[in-house]
TrEMBL record:
Coiled coil: none annotated. Its EC number is 1.2.1.79. It comes from the Bacteria. This is Putative succinate-semialdehyde dehydrogenase [NADP(+)] 2. Residues 2-441 form the Aldehyde dehydrogenase domain. PANTHER family: ALDEHYDE DEHYDROGENASE-RELATED. Keywords: Oxidoreductase. The keyword Oxidoreductase applies. Belongs to the aldehyde dehydrogenase family. It comes from Mycobacterium montefiorense.
Length: 462
């Protein structure tokens, strides 16, 4: 597909001063000027949608339909959203909270942002991490995953063509252990934003803490999919399959732990098994393909090993569970029933097309099981009862709770987790706050040289 330069910490040492040099011009540009450039970037991204779709499919193996209908149009919409948001960075109006002074609040660009992105949604994650920063007036140095850097490089090229000044958007390709660590620990950055595994996220946070960098982390997940006894079983079945298999299950918000009312348990398992059996696994460039390969053979081995251990831990493999003999890192849709709460398949993030199912014995038990995890990124609750829905949304510990659906996201709404899933928000106006610093400006309005409060410090003597 492509041959890229393997960047080094020396490249990071070149990129960060370039971003620092460009910061003054970009941070002091008017909101209208930043909006104009970013709007042009949205237009160019849409014009190059076919190129981006093809690159995304080739480098990740995700199905063509997913890239065409989700990844690329979602990225275009997100860029357009933040182009508009650039014009709405308001501070508080002036006010005399003290008789001798007036105060106002400025929201200013935080500075140089180091962004480290994963391989599962390369274009979307590059947009999520860079666009709010750019809208806020920050400059960016981004390291895409070494497995999927192509669309990030294309986005950077389009950013330059849109009129973004040199040094505002910088890309350093390379390995996480080299370039990623150097970025997170560099004294010249003001913030580190990272999406990836919880284990790596902890290392990034530790590296960033050496210099006191602000951090924003979107990490792993193990989303509960809670089906109450009054749920629309057909909707829950289809929602579970879609939520578990999106992007071949390589999604931190994927439905991974179905917790189903005992009265509906058998029907749910039969329904999911039937729908999963019709899923087409194959060539991701074929429009009829539903499920492409996993990112690598090494990752498939990890997924397969966890599933292979599940029966010894009490699980029943209902569908799938065996790597095909065909060439490629394909793994079939897999349904594990009767999974023990302490098993690896139930507790660890598998990051593959695997759904585990357990029964629950009432609302209290369902919500207890939903919260029995270190993660807290996403969850869903399936019920016809508004009071149950509201209770679930209130009590489930997650950054996002869907009711009678699972997965949909939109630019106007925030995305981010709790606990081992990280902290801070991507998307929406809330994410802009990650890249801004709040400054209080207090101005004397008396014109008096000897202020009344001075006598608190020293006696005023004539």
């Amino acid at each position: 597909m492509a041959e890229l330069t393997l960047g080094t910490p020396a490249d990071v040492d070149r990129a960060i001063p370039a971003a620092r040099l460009a910061l003054r011009e970009w941070a002091t540009a008017t909101p209208a000027q930043r909006c104009t450039v970013l709007t042009r970037l949205a237009e160019l991204t849409e014009l190059h949608a076919r190129e981006l779709v093809d690159e995304e499919v080739r480098q990740t193996g995700k199905p063509l339909r997913l890239a065409e209908e989700f990844d690329v149009p979602g990225s275009v919409d997100n860029i357009g959203f933040f182009a508009g948001a650039a014009r709405h960075l308001h501070g508080l109006a002036s006010a005399e909270y003290s008789a001798e002074h007036t105060s106002n609040i400025r929201r200013e660009a935080l500075g140089v942002v180091a962004a480290i992105t994963p391989w599962n949604y390369p274009l979307q994650m590059a947009v999520w991490k860079t666009l709010p920063a750019l809208a806020a007036g920050c400059t960016v140095v981004i390291k895409p995953s070494e497995l999927t850097p192509l669309t990030t490089l294309t986005l950077a090229r389009l950013a330059t063509e849109s009129g973004l000044p040199d040094g505002v958007f910088n890309v350093v390709t390379g390995l996480g252990a080299d370039v990623g660590t150097a970025l997170a620990a560099h004294p010249g950055v003001d913030m580190v934003t990272f999406t990836g595994s919880t284990a790596v996220g902890r290392n990034v946070m530790a590296a960033a803490a050496v210099h006191g960098h602000r951090t924003q982390l979107e990490l792993g997940g193990k989303a509960p999919f809670v089906v109450f006894d009054d749920a629309d079983i057909d909707a829950a079945v289809h929602g579970a399959v879609a939520g578990a298999l999106i992007n071949s299950g390589q999604d931190c918000t994927a439905a991974t732990r179905a917790i189903v009312a005992r009265d509906l348990y058998d029907d749910f398992i039969c329904g999911v098994a039937e729908v999963m059996s019709k899923v087409v696994v194959g060539d991701p460039t074929d429009p009829d393909t539903d499920l492409g390969p996993l990112i690598s053979l090494a990752h498939r081995r990890r997924v397969a090993d966890i599933v292979a251990r599940a029966p010894a831990e009490g699980a029943r493999i209902v569908v799938g569970g065996k790597s095909p003999d065909s060439v490629g890192a394909f793994y079939p849709p897999t349904l594990l029933a009767d999974v023990d709460e302490r098993s690896q398949a139930y507790r660890d993030e598998i990051f593959g097309p695997v759904l585990t199912v357990r029964p629950h014995d009432g609302d209290d038990d369902a919500l207890r099981q939903a919260n029995d995890t270190d993660y807290g990124l996403a969850a869903s609750a399936w019920t016809r009862d508004i009071y149950r829905a509201q209770r679930a949304s209130r009590e489930i510990k997650a950054g996002c709770v869907w009711i009678n659906d699972h997965i949909p996201i939109i630019s106007e709404m925030p995305h981010g987790g709790l606990g081992a899933s990280g902290f801070g928000k991507d998307m929406s106006d809330y994410s802009l706050e990650e890249y801004l610093t709040i400054k209080h400006v207090m101005s004397d309005i008396t014109g008096v040289a000897e202020k009344p409060w001075h006598r608190t410090v020293f006696a005023i003597r004539n």
